[in-house]
Amino acid sequence: MANPYSALFNAPGSRAFVLAGMIARMPISMTGIGLITMLSQLHGGYGLAGSVAATFALATAFCAPQVSRMVDRFGQGRVLPIAALVGGGALLLLLLCTRLQAPQWTLFVFAALAGCMPSMSAMVRARWTEIYRGKPELQTAYALESVLDEVCFIVGPPLSVGLCVVVFPEAGPLVALLALAIGVTAFALQRGTEPAIHPHDATQAGSAIASLEVRWLILLMIALGTIVGVVDVVSVAFAQQQGQPAAASIVLSVYAIGSCAAGLAFGALKFDVPLPRLFLYGGVATAITTLPLLLATNILGLALTVFIAGLFFAPTLIVAMALVERIVPPAKLTEGLTWLVTGLSIGVAIGAAGSGWLVDAFGARSGFWLALAAGAVVLGAAVQSYRRLR
Hints:
about 80% helix, 15 helices, Growth Hormone, Chain: A, 2 domains, mainly alpha
């Protein structure tokens, strides 16, 4: 049986833009944690570090869809270099201000401007969509991208932290900046696979987020991200409570492995089930698999429950991306994809902050109640989406 993932790369230029896109998307996973590590080392606390990193995250959530909207109107080749120059230049100035001990307000200004970095995962998905629009290979391509996103967030944070600690405090964000420059340049120069600029229909003016169907998908992505943020924080707190702090990395790796394996398997399979029904199934399964999290009493039990929870993350994300491709017109595709990625990032921040407060107030396992609430939101959003899309 032929490998469906290998078959994807029969398309001319596909290997090159996937490789360039992988390099270019690494900064998103490296920058935030790199800023926290850098500033905490140089300023001796986490208050300023967390605030600057949060400014960067919020700016990215606001700016990325706007950059993608410009890409839909003017093309990747024209917009991406400018966005990377603004975002990367601001990050470089932030590092210089840190090194020169400039006033703290400058860190917030340049952290906000650094949020202009483009959402490269959406740019790569847009190229796959242009190649395989209306074909079953598109689901496989989206599955591949979901797995690559997972790999990015598995490799990026520890790499950034390690560079900051071992080399010098600014090393993590600096390497992220170099990856952005190299990756975006290589990606933008590949004009042969760049999506065409589709004409905008006057009756469909405005943002992709104006669509109620897209808003339901974004809500579900926020809830999915919240579950991820909860798992991240509670796993660390739970492992410390058990006297095995190093075991947190094992638990988080198990969660990522479960999601990656399920995503690869889902992308290799062909289903006769309509996408809205698949989406409903994913929402139901995601909600149900948050329940066992409350039952974990040791590291082994926690690893098993998060593995099960991770099995439905990537498939649900893949179907959501496929639904956006069908809901929004081609002239708004990149923006629509970016809104989903942004929703996921917002959810991770909500999950991390909310579960951190619960852990401090009520103990490690109490954070999982937020995951249960997020699972209920996933279920509700999936049901509403099914009703509107079936």
